[in-house]
Backbone:
């Protein structure tokens, strides 16, 4: 669904842009994803809208077909948010232990306390943390927007599947600049 509007109280959710993840092999340059996400962060902060910075420090404990579950050990700084995000005291910071940012955290409560009705989701990876967070937000009744050029994945087919088949069913999609433009137009109309 093409972008139509942003609610008055929309939050930006940035998924897993952290030191231990961004050195992976992504299908699109991670620097561009970070730059577009940072432009969104700046636009949201300029409008005094909530910015949520999410990192992952674990994984859900269930069994998988990919072998036995081992305990995860993270190297020093692995979970640190990227300095390019310029974490501010007013940002909501969430550490998750699963793919999605809602399932193992108090993020829904924190957004509801701020009157948030819509979320814009960016980050890595498209078919993992981004998709899981977007699905969970939609299931919790938030309107969902996905900044397609501010996300990437390690597998092209997974990225494309999420963009073509999942995202249109749970929200609206578009490029970061179009989201910023909608935010600007919405603010000037008030």
Residues:
């Amino acid at each position: 669904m093409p972008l139509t509007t942003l609610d008055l109280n929309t939050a930006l959710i940035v998924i897993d842009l952290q030191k231990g993840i961004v050195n992976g092999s992504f299908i699109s340059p991670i620097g561009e994803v970070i730059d577009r996400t940072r432009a969104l962060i700046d636009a949201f902060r300029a409008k005094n809208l909530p910015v949520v910075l999410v990192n992952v420090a674990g994984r859900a404990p269930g069994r998988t077909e990919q072998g036995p579950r081992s305990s995860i050990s993270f190297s020093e700084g692995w979970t640190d948010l990227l300095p390019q995000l310029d974490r501010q005291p007013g940002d909501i910071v969430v550490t998750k232990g699963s793919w999605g940012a809602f399932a193992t955290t108090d993020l829904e409560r924190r957004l509801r306390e701020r009157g948030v009705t819509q979320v814009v989701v960016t980050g890595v990876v498209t078919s993992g943390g981004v998709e899981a967070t977007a699905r969970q937000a939609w299931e919790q009744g938030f309107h969902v927007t996905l900044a397609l050029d501010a996300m990437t994945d390690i597998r092209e087919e997974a990225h494309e599947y999420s963009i073509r088949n999942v995202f249109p069913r749970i929200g609206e999609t578009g490029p970061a600049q179009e989201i910023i433009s909608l935010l600007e137009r919405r603010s000037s109309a008030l």
Summary: The domain at 10-57+79-189 is CATH 3.40.50.850 (Rossmann fold). The chain has a mean pLDDT of 91. Helices lie at 30-46, 107-113, 126-139, 156-170, 176-189. The chain has one domain: 10-57+79-189.
